[in-house]
């Protein structure tokens, strides 16, 4: 068996400061893994004359998956390629508090659910236009308020295909089944704006309902997205697998991360039929760049999801256990968790417990 090739695209601003230490940890856990470095952003512009050079695209293609830091702008074309170029249709964002995480909530132990986010459609990628282009709709009698095409302004397009919504719904059901086998309730919760967008979010509701019904052994609940946001804060223990559109998942994942203790703690994995990439929920944290104090937990836990994807479940467990133990002890914590450790010191503490 050829050992798996993994492409690493570190990204912009402070992101490389969590990516490279994570690669070191993964190397230690699974020495046979082979990593290749895909250059992007400013660094690639200097070396290759492009923010997303052909060389990097080829490395991403040759690899079985990619570890991505975050884009602060310059690396955005790489992120777009990892999503639409590699057809990574669902974004899995686990939300789980553990002892030592500095949560602002009174009972943070109730946060233990997973967001399943559409990774390709909805308001993404941006498709916007001039209001005047909607002239054909201006006289439509089915519109309560026709678009004011005689005024200056713009519109945005939201796309929801049956195929993609069904894929996301099925991924949520598969995950709920897997979690049920581990003792979770096996409950899929949909959040959407079906009251206002019947043809897109209403259709999403129909598809998710139907998919869950086909699975038989799963529970189902649905809430309007605004109410779901409240429930996420007030009764997080009622949630197991939460299925959301691209934009709703984007927003609620950051909110949920805030509930368990911040963006430094929230990992994610993006999966398609033939490829996957792993990135933290957070961005490039430009305010922390160069300071050496960005919390690497989200990136390390994204690395654990990568190990699971490649079939190294035992090593993924060891990594998660070591991270949990550092938090449980509470002696070496980064500033966002109330400590004074540098990124390097935190990773070293994890490394000692591997
Ligand atoms: P951000 O997530 O980068 O930062 C928000 C806040 O959280 C900042 O105060 C930051 O310091 C803090 N934070 C983030 N990660 C942290 C960590 N690991 N440890 C400690 N603190 C952390 O979001 P932003 O500031 O809104 O965006 C910055 C850039 O990142 C923007 O260009 C945005 O588009 C981009 N972004 C990229 C991705 C991605 O590539 N997947 C995701 C989100 C945002
Ligand atoms: C995320 C980010 C991205 C998104 C940005 C960088 C385009 O916020 O991965 O959550 O909105 O999907
Ligand atoms: Mn986001």
Automatic annotation (TrEMBL):
<dbReference type="InterPro" id="IPR024084">
    <property type="entry name" value="IsoPropMal-DH-like_dom"/>
</dbReference>
<dbReference type="Pfam" id="PF00180">
    <property type="entry name" value="Iso_dh"/>
</dbReference>
<dbReference type="GO" id="GO:0006102">
    <property type="term" value="P:isocitrate metabolic process"/>
</dbReference>
<protein>
    <submittedName>
        <fullName>Homoisocitrate dehydrogenase</fullName>
    </submittedName>
</protein>
<dbReference type="GO" id="GO:0006099">
    <property type="term" value="P:tricarboxylic acid cycle"/>
</dbReference>
<keyword id="KW-0560">Oxidoreductase</keyword>
<comment type="similarity">
    <text>Belongs to the isocitrate and isopropylmalate dehydrogenases family.</text>
</comment>
<dbReference type="GO" id="GO:0004449">
    <property type="term" value="F:isocitrate dehydrogenase (NAD+) activity"/>
</dbReference>
<feature type="domain" description="Isopropylmalate dehydrogenase-like">
    <location>
        <begin position="5"/>
        <end position="350"/>
    </location>
</feature>
């Amino acid at each position: 068996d050829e050992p798996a090739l993994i492409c690493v695209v570190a990204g912009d601003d402070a992101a490389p400061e969590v990516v490279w230490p994570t690669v070191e940890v993964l190397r230690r856990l699974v020495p046979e893994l082979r990593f290749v470095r895909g250059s992007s952003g400013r660094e690639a512009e200097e070396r290759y004359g492009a923010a997303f050079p052909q060389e990097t695209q080829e490395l991403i293609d040759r690899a079985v998956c990619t570890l991505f830091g975050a884009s602060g702008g310059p690396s955005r074309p790489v992120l777009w390629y990892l999503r639409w170029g590699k057809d990574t249709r669902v974004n899995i964002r686990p939300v789980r508090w553990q002892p030592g995480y500095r949560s602002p909530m009174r009972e943070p132990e109730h946060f233990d659910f997973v967001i399943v986010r559409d990774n390709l459609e909805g308001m993404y990628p941006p498709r916007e236009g001039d209001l005047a282009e909607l002239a054909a709709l201006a006289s439509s009698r089915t519109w309560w308020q026709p678009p004011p095409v005689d005024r200056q302004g713009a519109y945005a397009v939201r796309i929801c295909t049956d195929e993609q919504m069904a894929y996301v719904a099925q991924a949520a059901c598969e995950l709920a089944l897997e979690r049920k086998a581990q003792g979770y309730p096996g409950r899929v919760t949909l959040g959407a704006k079906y009251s206002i967008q019947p043809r897109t979010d209403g259709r999403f509701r129909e598809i998710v309902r139907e998919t869950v019904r086909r699975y038989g052994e799963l529970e189902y609940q649905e809430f309007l997205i605004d109410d779901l946001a409240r429930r996420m804060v007030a009764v997080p223990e009622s949630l197991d697998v939460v299925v959301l559109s691209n934009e709703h998942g984007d927003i609620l994942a950051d909110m949920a991360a805030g509930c368990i203790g911040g963006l430094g703690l929230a990992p994610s994995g993006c999966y398609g039929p033939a490829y996957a990439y792993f990135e933290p929920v957070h961005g490039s944290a430009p305010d922390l760049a160069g300071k050496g104090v960005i919390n690497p937990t989200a990136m390390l836990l994204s690395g654990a999801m990568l190990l699971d994807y490649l079939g190294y479940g035992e090593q993924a467990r060891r990594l998660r256990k070591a991270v949990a133990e550092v938090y449980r002890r509470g002696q070496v914590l980064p500033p966002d968790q109330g400590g004074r450790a540098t990124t390097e010191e935190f990773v070293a503490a994890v490394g000692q417990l591997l």
